[in-house]
Amino acid sequence: MDTRGAAVEERTGGLNAAEVAERVARGETNAFESPTSRSAWSIIRANVLTLFNGIIAACFVVLLVIGRWQDALFGFSAIANTIIGSVQEFNAKRALDRLALLHAPSARVRRDGADREVPVAEVVLDDRLVLRAGDQVAADARVVASERLQLDESMLTGESDPVDKQPGDEVLSGSIVIGGAGSAVVDRVGADAFANRLSSEAKQFSLVASELRSSLNRLLGWIAWIIGPVSLLVLNAQMVAQGGWAEAIEGGTWDEAVVATVAAIVAMIPLGLVLMTSIAFAVGAVRLASRKVLVQELPAVEGLARVDLICLDKTGTLTEGDIVFDAAHPVALEPPEGWTDVLGWYGADPEANATARCLVEPYPVRQVLEPAARIAFSSARKWSAVGFAGGGTWVLGGPEMVFPATDAADAPDTAGLRERAAALAATGRRTLVLAHSPDELTAERAAAERLPRELTPVVLLTFRENVRGDARETLEYFAAQGVAVRIISGDNPQTVAAIARDVGVDAPHGIDARTLPEDLDELGELLEREVVFGRVTPTQKRDIVTALRRRGHTVAMTGDGVNDALAIKEADIGIAMESGSSATKAVARLVLLDGRFSHLPGVVAEGRRVAANIERVSMLFLTKTAYATGLAVLFGVMLLPFPFLPRQLSVTDALTIGFPAFFLALMPNARRYVPGFLRRSLSFAIPAGIVIALVLALYSRMATDAGIPEDELRSGSTLVLGIVGLWVLIVLSRPIDGWKIVIIGAMGVGLVAIYAIPFAADFLELVELSEATALLALAASFASIAGVEVVRFVHRRAVARMTPTVPAALVATVRQTAPGVPGGPAGSSGRPDRSRGRG
């Protein structure tokens, strides 16, 4: 500390008014405006000002300008997708902006020799904070006076034990005073304070990693590169088909060429797939909300289905976060009279810590005792003492501290006691000893804080953290699914390892994080071998997640404390408990509203349903993109009129893709997640699209050569596309059962209706087909269907080779350990998954 700080420490009266004003003028105050996670403009820009929205908007405006509003139906899909995306990101922004680590509205400082309350923002550098039990530390400071000052730093560091603070020790903003009193001189304020630095780092905006979303973005990028030259190719062909550029412009038929070009461009963009993905995520989020799981960013529904490693914080995740009494283990053959009443006094003491309060239930107060003198508990010496008139002195504390090995020559043989206590501690239980001395506890002895002589152990008391009842079953589910587990905590590594063993984790020992390498590659290698880590700092938790992700793992992180916030934000999927801090919940992707760890298997199952169904419907949309691109290129090269109006494509898309895709995306699907969504989808969509495009081009050429009128040619093309689109739907929906029969049947009826109902036919400019056109359309349809079946046959076998088979034994284990999720006894019919390779 500099000389200025040293001078401030020596002055117990604190700063004077002039010194405070001087620091305020220099900006050395605790005022802190946390930056918003993401500006409203950036959200709007990301969702509205996109390349494809620009293309769609341009096409929409062109059609309105030339008076063809009937062909502009595609604009509504783009608008809906933009609204859904913007609303979800605004919700995420609000959650992040609510992040706050400091809840204390004011701080107590000493100025001009007097204590006064000031707003937290008005605390200045070198202020003297006056700390009492229940206060939250407003800024980082260094202790200058301590009267058994104890702080709870668990929400910052993960260490659940109270921390004694002596003069010279650092106190961090955000920690809570739980015992004693003291004062500290502020040495970091505002943005430099620990809590605010952690808050700012956690609030930096980032989107959850999503293979579905990233694959779609990559696909849209590819389409963006080809849409420009293809649109020029199509426009040229349509102008030539109208008699040439000069004649089309002079004769006013250029608008027909523009409409046809717009139809080709819009058909190439799978806007409905983006919308359907958003809807599937949203419905998944609603379903999870009914199970008390809050989804704060929609793609997280898919993300947890991809997780192959989950990092768990012990306190609040595997355990309830509280201490409960375990058992009493008598040591003395003839314990002194009244020892149970002493334990009752310890439990009922108003100043009892969390461990002592656990004694209330097993040892209720039967006799009111009045202490003559006492020594309060200290986490440094780890024992407390109390004396009752005529009853001698009673000591409660850690066995190794009350009966240290160095004093063995001066006390009864207590080596056996220490060994027994160590054996109990190795099981993950916290161990205390109650000891007695006939010597009275005088005020002088209490002030000196010395253990009495002739101390005899009476009973060993064990305490344990209350393990969540659903922890073992949930971890067994993840083990059966091949999801690895790493347990990271701020507590003692051996205690954490013992609790891990209690919930079924193979953890022979724990690793002290103070020995972890700083190099992320070395850390990653260690993480592949070890399972349990203790004494982990918040930045180390983040480094652990980072190292695992660098090794190719998809990582989920659970926790409830501020110390978990950075790691939860860094993870692919962050999961917070509702009982956790506001910081942790704000940056998490998922929040377990009732804190039940057992919800996670259901979240995994929901993620799998969403991922598998989106893959299925993506094949519908991408097949359309493939044949639309193929048609645009073929008709551009062949200089033929494009055989569809935009409105005709809009309706056939709705009947064969849009409406059925909506229902397919929401159906049950328990297929296990397999990476490579885009490759599998395109491996069907591209060859199927090429087949359809070639057949339609051949149909159009033959119809043109036969002299079939343009409106009849378009009507026939629409019929072919409708029949083939329904067949692609049938192929991708197999096995056809239940609601699928109803959906496909309804779409078939709709296809018939647009030809049979005069109003619909007139609006779509569909005319009655001649016998020759009808036969040619049916022939084209059958040829396309045969080609699609061949493509699907080859595709299914190729996918089967790429997809790992789930062993039968593993399936059986999942059903036993995860009831209520697909594949389990209460989650489905119990039939084996038949969807592998059919997505």
UniProtKB/TrEMBL annotation:
It is found in: Cell membrane. Keywords: Membrane, Translocase, Transmembrane, Transmembrane helix. It holds the Pfam family E1-E2_ATPase. Signal peptide: none annotated. InterPro entries: ATPase_P-typ_cyto_dom_N, ATPase_P-typ_P_site, ATPase_P-typ_TM_dom_sf, ATPase_P-typ_transduc_dom_A_sf, ATPase_P-type_domA, HAD-like_sf, HAD_sf, P_typ_ATPase. The chain crosses the membrane at residues 48-66, 219-237, 257-283, 626-645, 651-670, 682-701, 713-732, 739-761, 773-794. It comes from the Bacteria. It is a multi-pass membrane protein. Residues 102-201 form the P-type ATPase A domain. NCBIfam families: ATPase_P-type (TIGR01494). This is HAD-IC family P-type ATPase.
